[in-house]
Every structure is written in C-alpha cells, then in structure tokens.
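Quiz preparation item.
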C-alpha cells in the first residue's frame, strides 16, 4: 500500500561528456567551407563551361577570354564582355546566379570558421563511443554507485552494454562532501552523469572546451512527493501544470541555474572559449597564397625578360 503520491513535473536525463577534439588547423581554413568533391566539381565546371559557352553563345568570344572572365567573376568582378541576344543573356545570367550562391556560401562559411574554432569530429555519439571503447581507444568513468550502471546492464542496446562492461567507477565527492565533476577531462576519456550537472560544471558551447552528447542513456521523472491523504493533490497538480505551460518554471529554473553557475565560477580562472579576434596565425593560409602568387609572378616576369633578351 502506497503512503505517498508523486506529482511529476520534469524529466532529467543522463549522458556522456568528453573533451572537445583538437581544433582544425586554421591556415587551411580557406579550404574547409567546401568538401573535396565540391572543389573537384568547381574545377570541372571552370574547365568545361567556357568551352560550352563558346559553342552555344551567339556572340563569338575566344576560349581564353571566357575562361579568364569567368574566373574573375568568381572573385566578385564583373564580366569583361557584354551580351545582347536573349540566348546569351540566359546563359550568362545562369552563370552569374550560380556564382552568386557559391561565393556567398563560401564567404559566410569561411568567416564563421575563422572566428569560431572548428574541431575534428571525434566521438560524438553513443555508437562511436562504444566502438572506441571496444577498440581500447577510450575509457569511460562515472560516479561510484551510479544507478546508470544497472540501467545500462539491463539495456537492450548492445552499445550501452559494451560501454558498461568497460566502465570505471570513481569518487566525485570532495573533502567537504560536495559532489564535484572532474575539472579537467583527459584525452580519450568519457564521463557519464546527469546532463544538468555537466552543463552546470562545464558550461554551454561555444564557451566551453567540453562536449556533452546530444543522446541520452536514461530518462528519470522528477516530481513532488505528497502525503496520500493530502487534501489538495489535484489542485497542486493543476497549479504545477499551469506553471509549466506558462513558462514560469523554465524562467525560474534558468535564473537559478545561471546564478549557481556564476557562484561556482567565482573562484575559478575564467577562460574564453568563444569567438576570438582573428590573428596572423588564422590568416596564414591566405597570406601564404598571396606570397606564392607574387613569387610565381616574379618568376614569370624574369622568364619573360630573359626570353626577350635572348630573342634580340
């Protein structure tokens, strides 16, 4: 016979947290906006479209002029020729439209990749973690006596059972009895625990160097326990439901959550993991391309001068 009734009001889940994978080398960031199949397609288009335009267009232009004009157009330069016939306008208009979307997407992704650090994919799902654990490349830790171990052991998911077999239990209690998550997570280590706890301890992206999995391994109802003979159980249930539907609980929860986080960070050294100003290292790739282009230009100039003198 039950002595109390429960009024659930929210759900908490448990998941894994790891250290963010290492950042991608920024000097090569100008190649990151597009995948290599896209780059190969662009090279193929630049090689074939001028030839097609030369035979289809009513206005006769040399292949060299078309090729150079289309390349300059991809760098936001106007075309070096004018068209008058309706057929030519359709062809040139389709090219300008395609170039507009390609260059706009490239510029947007390039700027975002330079200002916000890019990271390698790493382990981001439970299936990836299970594969890494079974291969001996990852270790999994959790608080000693965690109920999640029993849930994982009884799970129908083979990946969770693999992770549980290799799970290591550690103590999270400090000297004063408080539960504290490891402040630093080693490379190739995943920690299992409540999502809200990890968010409180490590923060949210982009202002953190930790990655909290989007997947969950368990869901737990959180509620109020009231005496079975309590007179206003139904009224309390309706009031809690109203607070949730009106967003009052979420507002109070968010305010208290961030107050707790600021109190937690009061004695810690803050590190900015968010967007940062661009440095010379970030722009090393474009400057290297510029230097390489200038060097090739000088070589061509020297070759032209030598050829001119030899031909006299």
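Solution:
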């Amino acid at each position: 016979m039950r002595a109390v009734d429960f009024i659930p009001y929210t759900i908490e889940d448990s998941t894994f947290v790891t250290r963010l994978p290492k950042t991608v080398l920024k000097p090569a960031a100008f190649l990151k906006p597009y995948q290599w199949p896209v780059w190969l397609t662009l090279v193929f288009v630049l090689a074939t479209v001028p030839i097609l335009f030369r035979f289809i267009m009513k206005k006769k232009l040399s292949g060299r002029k078309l090729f150079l004009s289309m390349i300059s157009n991809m760098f936001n330069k106007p075309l070096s020729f004018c068209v008058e016939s309706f057929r030519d306008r359709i062809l040139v208009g389709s090219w300008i439209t395609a170039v507009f979307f390609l260059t706009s997407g490239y510029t947007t992704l390039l700027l975002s990749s330079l200002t916000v650090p890019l990271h390698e994919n790493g382990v981001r799902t439970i299936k990836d973690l299970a594969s890494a654990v079974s291969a001996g490349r990852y270790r999994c830790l959790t608080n000693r006596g965690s109920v999640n171990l029993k849930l994982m052991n009884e799970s129908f998911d083979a990946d969770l059972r693999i992770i549980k077999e290799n799970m290591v239990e550690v103590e999270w209690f400090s000297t004063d009895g408080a539960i504290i998550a490891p402040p630093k997570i080693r490379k190739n280590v995943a920690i299992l625990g409540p999502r809200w706890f990890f968010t409180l301890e490590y923060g949210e992206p982009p202002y953190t160097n930790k990655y909290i999995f989007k997947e969950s391994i368990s869901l737990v109802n959180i509620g109020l326990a009231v005496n079975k003979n309590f007179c206003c159980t139904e009224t309390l249930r309706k009031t809690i439901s109203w607070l949730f539907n009106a967003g009052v609980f979420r507002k109070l929860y968010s305010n208290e959550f961030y107050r707790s986080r600021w109190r937690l960070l009061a004695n810690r050294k803050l590190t900015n993991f968010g967007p940062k100003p661009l440095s010379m290292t970030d722009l090393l790739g474009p400057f290297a391309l510029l230097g390489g282009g200038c060097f090739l230009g000088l070589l061509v100039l020297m070759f032209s001068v030598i050829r001119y003198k030899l031909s006299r």
